[in-house]
Amino acid sequence: MSPLSPDARHAMFTGARTANTFDDTPVTDAELTRIWELARWAPTAANSQPLRVLFVRAGEGRERLVKHMDEGNRAKTGSAPAVAVLAADTRFHEHIPAVLPYKPQLKDTFAGNDALRSGTASFNATLQAGYFILAVRAEGLAAGPMGGFDAAGMDAEFFPDGRFHSILVVNIGHPGKDAWRPRLPRLAHDDVVSWA
Amino acid sequence: MSPLSPDARHAMFTGARTANTFDDTPVTDAELTRIWELARWAPTAANSQPLRVLFVRAGEGRERLVKHMDEGNRAKTGSAPAVAVLAADTRFHEHIPAVLPYKPQLKDTFAGNDALRSGTASFNATLQAGYFILAVRAEGLAAGPMGGFDAAGMDAEFFPDGRFHSILVVNIGHPGKDAWRPRLPRLAHDDVVSWA
Prior knowledge:
Two copies of one chain form a homodimer.
Chain A lengths: L5 H9 L14 H11 L11 E6 L3 H7 L4 H9 L2 E8 L6 H4 L6 H6 L2 H25 L3 E5 L4 H8 L5 E10 L15 H4 E3 L1
Antiparallel strand pairs in A: 1-2, 2-4, 3-4
Helix pairs in contact in A: 1-7, 2-7
Pfam families (chains A, B): Nitroreductase
GO molecular function (chains A, B): oxidoreductase activity
Keywords (chains A, B): Flavoprotein, FMN, NADP, Oxidoreductase
């Protein structure tokens, strides 16, 4: 039996849409913190939790961000009440003794294997980006995820020591006027699902 | 305001755990299809939807699967009522004219740029894997995601034409005896979240 009410299923999955405009209702720091407080509990490999979240409010920080967005994403990113830059921590393994106390030596395994460390960081931060988008919705807010930005420029701007690599930018707010484009079709069951 | 009840927040995020054992309650094909029917609606770049799902029931298919799992994952994967192999479709762009009808020419952009196509496939399929795990929970089932398997062996076994690349294996069922290990700590707010 689903633990979600029909309204919750609609808000989280079946009726949720990527918002392209936002109204003036502010998004508070407490709301943004609550998004992270939900998303943080979903699972990652070896409890690695490589996702890092930079919340960018309106003002000077937003101007620094918008210039790295693709042209078509600038207006909406400039006007969203809040924006999250999601990034992967390439040195997440430094936290392993704290987050995986029964196997602290995994820190050294990651330290000695760049390909494993980098693959674990990207894959698990991206899984967590999926959780994060659904957590935005779970807080009653609309999410507008965007991959269209200059990642190298964004990293140089906000993460100049090279440790974090930005993977996704998510506008967060309450939907405004004409927020929704017509819904795009999803693939048919048999194009996606098979059985063995 | 959150569209989720306190029970739903608990079931989806704050109280959900990775199950390591499963009881004998079957998981029906209808339940598995409903997981996909929820997860399919969450967003992907250019509506690309590269995730593919192979549901493996008990029996001969499961035997073929278990032998590619890491040693420590074999017992639980063998005994789960259902298992999903999640994969990225490296030729997802063939569906672009159907899923992105206002920009069908993006198919050719992806066809001519292997790095862009492969990056889009992995990143978005992984985001969708995050949605999928939460959709399992939204159907009232426990998910047990595992990265510990021989991906090349799995692909040769189930996707021999080379088109799909497996990214994650997820056990699905109702929690059994001693299903939960002690909960591992999550990173502190200030280790993850920053503000600009």
